[in-house]
Amino acid sequence: MESLSRAKAPKSQLLKEPKTRAKTFVLDTNVLLHDPQSIFKFEDNNLVIPVEVLEELDTIKTEQSTERGRNARRVHRILQELLPDAHSMDEGVRLRNGGSLSVIINHYMVDQHFAGANPAMLRLQAVLPDLSKKDNRIIACALYVQEQFPPPVILVTKDVNVQLKARAVGLESQDYLNDKVPEALAEAREDAYREIPVTIYEMQRFCSEGRFDLGAEASRGLALNDYVLLRSEVDKTMPARVAGVEADGSCTVGRLRIPESVRAPGGIPIRPRNLEQQFLMDALLDDSVSVVTCFGKAGTGKTLLSIACALHQTQDACSRYDGVSISRPVIAVGKEIGFLPGDLEEKMKPWLQPYFDALEVLIPSKPPKDPQFAVKKVSKKKKTKHDARAHAMEMSPVAQTAGASGGGSGNGGGATAGIIKPYERLIRNGMVEIEALCFIRGRSIARRFFILDEAQQLTPHEVKTVITRIAEGSKIVLIGDPAQIDNPYVDSRSNGLVYCHNRMRGQSLAAHVTLTKGERSKLAELAADLL
Q1: CA-to-CA distance for 388 and 380, rounded, in angstroms?
Q2: Of 5, 92, 133, 293, which is most buried with the most CB atoms under 10 A?
């Protein structure tokens, strides 16, 4: 056999001889798992998949109930359609977008003698000597492609460490940018709302009519359902929402429609504490808005206000929604604690404890006392009678049965034996349901108020999977903090929450609110700002 050092270039290279300024992209496994359709999103450039990527996909495809496993199988089906035989695998194929696709075997790894005489491989082995690692072998394949194709050759990976290692050996690398929100838009989202100056007469007309037409200049940059604050020259303010956008770019703003307070069945009234919470309450209570996205740091009231407005709209048979569904991605902060025992609700209970805490605030077990009576002394006679009644309840078989069922249900976040917290009844009668995202595929969720917490931990494809489950008569709210991400394969510009807001902005069914003012406590606000 002729030595590879004297062999001609692979036939696949002949098919994909790059045009002027064409780029060659080498895809890492995590890019295909993040977006199986990424193969078709590199325009008319050359696309290369190392054979090591196929090995990693083969390992992951056996994960039956995970999004990674499903995406790995989708990639296999796409590649099977594009590369149906050995001929197409060897020579590569043209894609419908004008680019080309090829699966490459690194010949440097086949002939070690040839690899030892190549400067690029010598540099790789000096920096990354362990070629048994798949990441290092993918980098080595990208270096081989760099030798075979004219520049530029770019390794595309969502693994930051792989990007750094590739640059260390002289290889250009970058993140997958197709579903990333542009940096300018990412910076603009930090503004909670826009202030628009108006005259005192325009403010009076808005207050009397409930609507007001902004000029094209003042409307620049606004989209449908954006929230604004009208401010007059005498410093009078009124919150408003963009209710319409004309062909010339001018906008019509309308007054917010929010009640004085909302309350859960049997709960206490909840009122918005600041302007941003008024915006969020307006979006949550508007029947014409089907998807709400909300950004906010810890303690801004995202969870409490969303569950309060949800339960406020499910109080009776005439309500718009039949119940509330709550879910969140299962991604831990810190060290994993292992498998959780119990049924689905017991497994999800630790992850959804913030909502149980919110329900405890909305529907407290004990009515709030006036401060002057909070430490009122109890007479010795009443205390003795109370202790006797409590002892009788503990010894009662009914109480023991209730305690066994209440303690083992796992619904409610730590209820003691024999005591059923008021909000637990909402969970038992199905008004509040716990959803696991891993089982949501294929469902159709009708007449439910669906709250997806920690949505910034999801990929754009996962968020799309959840939103497409929402049927007529339902509403979905995605809340989270783009600055707190524990998923290693998404960031503040590529996570599903930010991606959904960016793509949905301006649609009549979508609204967005950013919360910046902490209301949990002075300590929580100080920690969120300084730590």
Answers
A1: 12
A2: 293
Strand partners, 252: 213, 244
Least confident window among 3-7, 107-111, 438-442, 504-508: 3-7
The distance from CA 394 to its chain's CA centroid, rounded to whole angstroms, is 45
Residues sharing a CB contact under 8 Å with residue 132, sequence separation 6 or more, in sequence order: none
Would you say residue 197 has pLDDT above 90?
Answer: yes
Token readout for 510 is 């979508």
User: Is the CB of residue 19 less than 8 Å from the CB of residue 108?
Assistant: no
Q: How far apart are CA 236 and CA 471, in angstroms?
A: 42
Q: Is pLDDT at 111 greater than 80 in this prediction? A: no
Task: Give 188-192 contacts, CB < 8 A, sequence gap 24+.
Answer: 189/295, 189/482, 189/498, 189/501, 189/514, 190/514, 191/514, 192/276, 192/279, 192/513, 192/514, 192/515, 192/516
Please, which residues have CB within 8 angstroms of residue 355's CB and are 6 or more apart in sequence? 303, 307, 326, 451, 453
DSSP per position, 333-389: SSS---PPPSSHHHHHTTTTHHHHHHHHHHS-SSPPPPGGGTT----HHHHHHHHHH
Mapping DSSP to helix (H, G, I), strand (E, B) and coil, where does residue 179 land? coil
Strand partners, 245: 251
Q: What is the dihedral of CA 54, 55, 56, 59, to 10 degrees?
A: 120
- Dig out the tokens for 436 from the structure: 């696991």
Q: Is 35 helix (H, G, I), strand (E, B) or coil?
A: coil
The pair of three-digit structure tokens given for residue 467, joined into one six-digit string: 């939103």
* Averaged pLDDT for residues 9-17: 45
**Which residues, 6+ apart, have CB-to-CB distance to 170 below 8 Å?**
120, 123
Instruction: Report the chain's C-alpha Rg in angstroms.
Output: 29
Residue percentage of the chain with pLDDT more than 70:
81
Got the DSSP string for 314-337? SSSTTSS-SEEEEE-----SSS--
Please state, in angstroms and rounded to a whole number, the distance separating the CA atoms of residues 311 and 323: 8
What's the average model confidence in pLDDT over 60-83? 90
Which residues, at least 6 apart from 91, have a Cβ–Cβ distance to it below 8 Å?
Answer: 11, 12, 14, 15, 102
Give the helix ranges, DSSP H, for 410-468: 424-428, 460-467
Q: How far apart are CA 312 and CA 323, in angstroms?
A: 10
Instruction: Decide: 452 and 293 in contact? Cβ < 8 Å.
Output: no
Yes or no: say if 511 and 284 are a contact pair by the CB < 8 Å rule: no
The SS3 of residue 433 is strand
CB 35 within 8 A of CB 461: yes
